[in-house]
Amino acid sequence: EFIQAVDTEGVCDITKKIVNVDRAFGGRIGGYVAYRHGDTGFAGSININLQGSGGQSFGCFIVGGINITLVGEANDYVCKGMAGGEVAIMPPADLSADASECVLIGNTALYGATGGRLFVNGRAGERFSVRNSMADAVVEGVGDHCCEYMTGGCVVVLGPVGRNVGAGMTGGLGYFYD
């Protein structure tokens, strides 16, 4: 189903559960789309709805046309090397705590991202958007070193921000509501 949608530039909807040993989720999918259509040439849409805990490098290397929604949380390196597409991470609907107080993704998200969008309905660990080149992101709080060495893109943080924001940042935009 997925391969046919990529080959014909069609639409594919996938719903699955994920566990934290599922590392680098998105890498093979993004690689196949880029192999067939290049980084920005895919006119179709791959919509992936997941529930559970994403492992290391969740959403890595995805390209335009890939949309991933995760109800749960993910480990370090979320959206590493992302070139396009969209990732949204949110807590389960039955969460008894305030989502803006919960850390949903680990450290070093968007490392080396060159495009795409990341939305987190919760907080991120340290080094959020480090070495981000052109991705856009919205998150409800981050640890230390946010936007470190960032060269492009736009980051909006709607909650607490740790120390050392923008160290070595040479481009892009950061908006912080702390």
Characterize the structure shown:
The structure is a single chain. The protein has a single domain, classed as Glutamate synthase, alpha subunit, C-terminal domain (Pectate Lyase C-like, 3 Solenoid), CATH 2.160.20.60. It has 2 helices and 10 strands, in the order αβαβββββββββ. It has an 8-stranded parallel sheet with strand order 1-2-3-4-6-8-9-10, with helices on one face. Helix content is 10%, strand content 33%. It is mainly β. The chain is globular. The model has no long low-confidence stretch (mean pLDDT 96).
Write the layout of secondary structure elements.
Blueprint: H1 2-8, E1 11-18, H2 27-37, E2 45-54, E3 66-74, E4 83-90, E5 103-105, E6 115-120, E7 123-124, E8 136-139, E9 154-157, E10 173-176
Parallel strand pairs: 1-2, 2-3, 3-4, 4-6, 5-7, 6-8, 8-9, 9-10
Supply the CATH architecture: 3 Solenoid
Number of helices: 2
Order of helices and strands: HEHEEEEEEEEE
The pLDDT mean sits at 96
User: Helicity level, as a percent range?
Assistant: 10-25%
CATH evolutionary superfamily: Glutamate synthase, alpha subunit, C-terminal domain
Q: What multimeric state do the chains show?
A: single chain
Shape: globular
The proportion of residues in beta strands is 25-35%
Distance between the termini: 44 Å
The total number of structural domains is 1
* Low-pLDDT residue spans: none
Radius of gyration: 15 Å
Find the count of extended strands (DSSP E, 2+ residues): 10
Name of the CATH first level: Mainly Beta
Walk across the major sheet and give the strand order: 1-2-3-4-6-8-9-10
